[in-house]
What does this fold into?
Amino acid sequence: MAGHWVPKTPDREERIFGGILSLRQAVYLLGALLAVAGAEAVLPLRGPGAGALSLRLLLGALAALPGLLLAFGRIAHYELNLDEALLRWWRGRRVPRRYVFRQLP
It folds into this structure.
């Protein structure tokens, strides 16, 4: 019987959707698709001509862009995903900082 070594502390997300997408990425892509469907439901731009179609495609792309960036965006300098970097930035902005100056004896 062959044994396999399994790390106790994984260093990256497990790809569960076909070995391509992690659960986090799939959720962000689903959110992007829901945003596109919501943009279509809120702004139904129906009409003849290529102008209405191009406007619908532009609005759909703008609605999907945040989800795509959160799913696949990375900050290479810090080795963070974009959503983790935004969460750390937000938490850092909310934490009150107190700088106490004391003279040493």
Q: What stands out?
A: The chain has a mean pLDDT of 79. The chain has three helices and four strands.
